[in-house]
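SEQUENCE, STRUCTURE TOKENS:
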Amino acid sequence: MAIEMKVPAVGESITEVTVATWNKKEGDHVKLDEVLCELESDKATFELPAEAEGVLHIVAKEGDVLPIGAIICTIEAGGATASVKVADAPVVAAVAAPAPAPVAAPAAGPTSVLEVKVPAVGESITEVTVSVWNKKTGDSVSLDEVLCELESDKATFELPAESAGVLEIVAESGTIVPIGGILARITVGGSVAVAAPAPAAAPSAPAAPASSVDATYAAGHPSPAAAKILDEKGISAASVAGSGVGGRITKEDAVAAVKPASASAPAASAPAAATSDRTRREKMSSLRKTVARRLVAVKNETAMLTTFNEVDMKPVMDLRGKYKDKFKEKHGVGLGFMSFFTKAVCVALKEFPSVNAKIDGDEIVFHDYCDISIAVSAPKGLVVPVIRSAENLSLAGIESEVVRLAGKARENKLSLEEMSGGTFTITNGGVFGSMLSTPIINAPQVAILGMHNIVERPVVVDGQIVIRPIMYLALSYDHRIIDGRESVSFLVRLKQLLEDPARLLLDI
């Protein structure tokens, strides 16, 4: 009986690994817990031990990129020599199709069907996208086994099985499902039997030609990395010869593949072909598509306006320059601009509570606390972790939280709880050089503050033209519950606090 070795779940945010080095060869006899190969992710390298003793059959070659749950190799438990030479090419003999698993005796008792639904994963998340299924329809699953990965506009998370049984998939990969929607069904108990597929050829055949190797790694089947490269090049897998196990198309085969010239294309079309070679297509990730839908929905479902003001940053910069070394020496974190802005925002939100509210049906929900969302650029895109109860934190406490959350964002280790439930958002496009922007509201919040770069500009102070470091501020808000007077007054209050930071310390 062949045991399938699959890529294990190695971290919450890791979705794929690369086969780095095989320590054993095709057809080798391996022992239980013997290290078969090394796998690499974007965070670490780890070893894959054998789950049983037997003969090894390699599916994924070195350099192949595999998603979590994909088959790396199989082990023929208790098998004898399992590879022979046919026309100088090693092929699997007598194991072209794995023996069907013995059907378990029907469980006593009635059969019940459990619906697997999308769980509530965050206050502002209303739908998720099915990213990858780790199991197929008809597979037997055990309690807490990971069935699939779901993506929202904030994070990727795994869905475990709520019971053991037989799986029936309802929502295929790429499907958008609302919270509470049905993803799959699990048949529990009863006389549940899954029909084993009929073997394509007689199992007693002593050897099979290369073209009849097991369909799992049959000729013309690309690895995930190879499939992506071929898709970008617009090349059909059928036109590429595979050099992998059983004719599998590897990443190297895909890189070397050249799109065949069309025999019917006239010579005059050569310039157009050359132009098309300078373009490339790449599918949007599920996360990017979800973010796009939500941003468009916010634009369509809110009465969004943006108001602007400018702030003279000299007082804050002078205070920061004077005390930043002592601040870091005492608190262990740097004194940045974000702590001043977050503190000033908390003061202003108390004075203008509608800016810190949200709409729920025909009601306005006011928050008597300030959970400030901070937009952070991460490898997979923009994420918005939350500083909880920021109004109760000191400047040092805010800076510590910013450093902690930004670090986890860069490592793709933010949890859903850390990105859910914010009441107001601050985004700083200035770190990328933005002079002015109109940020989009982070629903269900009703306002967002945009910070920008600091530029020295001539301004009039006490009748004199002087050069001052000026930052433009932008407040996008939902006009359904925030009036123009409140939005403008909110920005003016921020301006007062930042241009006289002693007000933050004296709470005036």
Remarks:
- The longest helix spans residues 314-331.
- The CA atoms of residues 370 and 389 lie 5 Å apart.
- The chain has a mean pLDDT of 80.
